[in-house]
Amino acid sequence: MATYGYTRSLRLLSSREFQHVFDNACFKVHGKGLLALACANDLDHVRAGMVFGKKSMRRAVDRNRLKRLTRESIRLRQHWLPAVDIVVISKRGVADLDSETLQRQLDGMWRRLEQDVKRKNRKVSPA
């Protein structure tokens, strides 16, 4: 039975880990108001971090809602997301999205990320 917890092992914790993703982002996935940068990791699971600044969302309640929805989306899809480190960045206008639209955006971003990783792996290892 698969577990669906959101443990520390699923998170990017240090600034060094975040900087590694920013410097070596092999994948960029855009959504309305969101950007996800990702790079491959040597683990067998996804890890994620979030950067939601005051510039894109003034109110703390909006930033916290976005963090909560993003964490929940990753937690529920952790078993089929590829083994990459992801940093989700907010852009202006994301605070205007309702929860349902935001959830659809995140689902679409994870699907595109999975397709991009599969496509790159096919190019790297011809079989």
From TrEMBL:
Keywords carried by this UniProt record: Endonuclease, Hydrolase, Nuclease, RNA-binding, tRNA processing
EC number: 3.1.26.5
InterPro entries, sorted: Ribosomal_Su5_D2-typ_SF (IPR020568), Ribsml_uS5_D2-typ_fold_subgr (IPR014721), RNase_P (IPR000100), RNase_P_CS (IPR020539)
PROSITE patterns given in the database record: RIBONUCLEASE_P
Catalysed reaction, written as an equation: Endonucleolytic cleavage of RNA, removing 5'-extranucleotides from tRNA precursor
Enzyme class: hydrolase
UniProt xrefs under Pfam families: Ribonuclease_P (PF00825)
GO cellular component, one term: ribonuclease P complex
UniProt keyword Transit peptide, yes or no: no
GO molecular function terms listed in the Swiss-Prot or TrEMBL record: 3'-tRNA processing endoribonuclease activity; ribonuclease P activity; tRNA binding
GO terms, biological process: tRNA 5'-leader removal
Keyword tRNA processing in record: yes
Family the entry assigns: Belongs to the RnpA family.
Role according to the record: RNaseP catalyzes the removal of the 5'-leader sequence from pre-tRNA to produce the mature 5'-terminus. It can also cleave other RNA substrates such as 4.5S RNA. The protein component plays an auxiliary but essential role in vivo by binding to the 5'-leader sequence and broadening the substrate specificity of the ribozyme.
Subunit structure: Consists of a catalytic RNA component (M1 or rnpB) and a protein subunit.
Protein name: Ribonuclease P protein component
Organism whose genome encodes this protein: Larsenimonas rhizosphaerae
Gene of this entry: rnpA
